[in-house]
Amino acid sequence: MSAHILSGKEVATAVRGEVATRVAALQERGKTVGLATVMVGEDPASAVYVRSKHRAAEKAGMLSFDFHLPADATQEQVEARVRKLNSDDRVDGIIVQLPLPPGLDGNEAVAAIDPAKDADGLHPYNLGLLVMERGHLRPATPSGIMRILDHYNIETAGKLAVIMGRSFLVGKPMALLLGAKGVDATVVQAHSRTQNLFDLARRADILVAAIGRPRFISGDHIKPGAVVIDVGINRTDDGLVGDVDFASAVDVASAITPVPGGVGLMTVASLLANTVRAAEHATD
Predict the structure, then answer these.
(1) Which listed residue (92, 97, 117, 159) is catalytic?
(2) How many degrees, rounded to 5, is the angle at CA 11 between CA 6 and CA 12?
């Protein structure tokens, strides 16, 4: 039996509708909501992603500010632009588009963002609050995955969740969110040095693939009836594919996110949700 497709488009549409309603409510109180991006260099994939963020922000009724610095910009120039946005009352959410060109430190650029305007939820302060199960600005992609699980009523309590990947963008915060009180999954975090990696994957009730290797996980590596969340977005000669081989996995899993059309759409929706949340807190 084929798996239920967990459509990111369906959930993202719902989130964007909620965001637009909240933006309109703030506007009625005289408060605009603004999202700003800082991009350095000419990476084509980053440029496409930034454009999609601004289109989504404008559709939700937000002000949209796009700052594009040349590839030879210095670290100080990048951080100076961020600090300027920190003090701009029109801006409620700030994103530094990663990765930055070689020679620049993306972590330091993110750390320059005012934590109260951290649309990506990746500032060290906000990640620290996440560890404490506090705070309201959470990493966008893991937050989007949690919204997908909630939207489709995926049971997490007592389930074994295996997360393949340990980046601070997805893997580490994903483990914290799935293991949090009220979610209550038992979390195992796997990575490139995990022994018997595929054996571990076959035990997972919820398998999150965030390793950046196209079609790395096949149907043979999935427990029958498992829920599979594919975070990967890999450009190949066949187009965009995930970290999971969808064709073989769809007949084994009980539910699966597609690529494209899955988690990626939720990342942008979560950025918007963080931005309006930041604006609401600024007016409290």
Answers:
(1) 97
(2) 125
- Catalytic residue selected from 92, 118, 120, 205: 120
Tell me whether residue 31 is one of the annotated catalytic residues.
no
Give per-residue pLDDT as tens, 249-264: 999 999 999 999 999 9
Q: Give the ranges where the chain is alpha helix by DSSP (H).
A: 8-28, 44-59, 75-86, 106-111, 124-131, 140-151, 171-178, 197-201, 246-249, 263-283
Residues 195-238: tens digit of each pLDDT: 999 999 999 999 999 999 999 999 999 999 999 999 998 988 88
Answer yes or no: 105 catalytic: no
Domains and CATH numbers, the chain: 30-115 (3.40.50.10860), 140-264 (3.40.50.720)
Annotation says 97 is catalytic: yes
